[in-house]
Amino acid sequence: MGLYRRNLLQGALAGAGALLAQRKGKSQTAPAMQKTVYAWYPARFGTWNTAAIQWDAITHICFRTLDLQADGTVAKPAGNPPAAFVDEAHAHGVKVCVLAWSTNQRNTDSYLANHPSEIVQGMLAYVRENRLDGVSYDDEMIRATNGVTGGPSGPLVNALFKTLYQEFKSASADYHVSFAAPPVISANDRFGSIWFDWAALAGSVDAIVPMLYTANPPSIGWATNAQPLAGSKQTGATVPRDVVTLMSDYYAAMGDQKSKLLLGVNSFPWPGYEFRTRAADRLSATAGAGKTQPFDYMESQAAIYGKRWDSRQQSAWYVYQDGDQFVQGWYDDDHSWAAKLDYVNQEGLGGVGIWVLDGLNDSPQMWDLLRANFGALKTSPRL
User: Fold this and answer.
1) Considering Cα of 32, then 35, then 36, then 42, what sign does the dihedral take?
2) Is 8 helix (H, G, I), strand (E, B) or coil?
3) Looking at the domain assignment, is residue 381 inside a domain?
4) CA–CA separation, 18 vs 291, rounded Å?
5) DSSP E strands: which ranges in the chain?
6) How much is the pLDDT for 346?
7) Which residue range(s) make up the domain with 280?
């Protein structure tokens, strides 16, 4: 998880807390989702609260975290999960997985080059010890060139995933292996992670989750939603940072394997951006970086200045003049978030990966939207 995502959690939890007052009773039934709903947890690292989780609306819960070390060992900064947490999820038919990452490139380069088998065995031992159901690999420290071998990282990653998948599936065919993948993979984008062989990796996982949560950071340079569905802006150095464009790159790279793709989305509600701009128009150039604002604040500002709807981005927004500049706010309301779920259905994707559940303050509206879109599949015009 990148630093920016960590910084957003505070605002996300505040917005969700206000909606918790509307919470309905938790369902006690097994998941009835027709798509995979893979949720990372918890927002507050090291806590194990589940009071606000409505288990029937998810299929997998993936807690943080294992820390992959240079020597091939696996550190456990959160220790072992409480047995009661695992039992509760299993009682509702939800699979429990663990997220595994690295905190620095030196560790990543070393275990990929010298200890791939040991790293896999360490993850598998942890899963077995705690009666878990799989692992989510989320190492964001991989670069094009491995610092130990001096060669490309791509073949090393392929070999790691092949071993990971074989060892886990040999231990249990029901174990789940996923890859929390980079948001941008286009060679036409200067930030694109172009060193992965996605077609090969797709054969060694159950799911790939492109992490599109903040496709547009607040420093992007124009007023926009953090994760617009479409209609984003292109520059000479970057591709449009929207769901349709970035996921299309994955389709091309993976071939006919859409069912293994889970769209990475923020939980609902989530903070939005407020920008100072030089004009009132959509995609206006900004005067400095945007400011992250809680969901409740965005909704209150929209109520004051008039909530607008951008049909291309499928985003709520508002604008008002302040001196010789304008203030624009862009965020996901319930319609925006539902549009992403509908996109998953329309494209035939495997489901969604949700960053991140809190356990105490998760919004009942989020669970209702998941059920409405994935519990009984609907059809609507393609965007």
Assistant:
1) negative
2) helix
3) no
4) 21
5) 36-41, 60-68, 74-75, 95-101, 134-137, 176-181, 207-210, 262-266, 272-277, 291-293, 308-310, 315-322, 325-331, 351-355
6) 97
7) 274-328
Residues 321, 344, single domain; the answer is no
CA–CA separation, 162 vs 168, rounded Å? 10
Give domain status of residue 382, yes or no: no
Contacts for 356 with CB less than 8 Å, ≥ 6 apart: 9, 12, 39, 40, 41, 42, 43, 267
Any domain includes 232: yes
Tell whether 383 is covered by a domain.
no
Pair 183, 311 in one domain: no
Q: In whole angstroms, how far apart are CA 183 and each of 57, 101, 193, 247, 361?
A: 25, 16, 8, 9, 27
pLDDT in tens, 108-153: 999 999 999 999 999 999 999 999 999 999 999 999 999 999 999 9
| pLDDT tens, position by position, 7-36 | 444 444 444 444 433 433 444 455 578 999
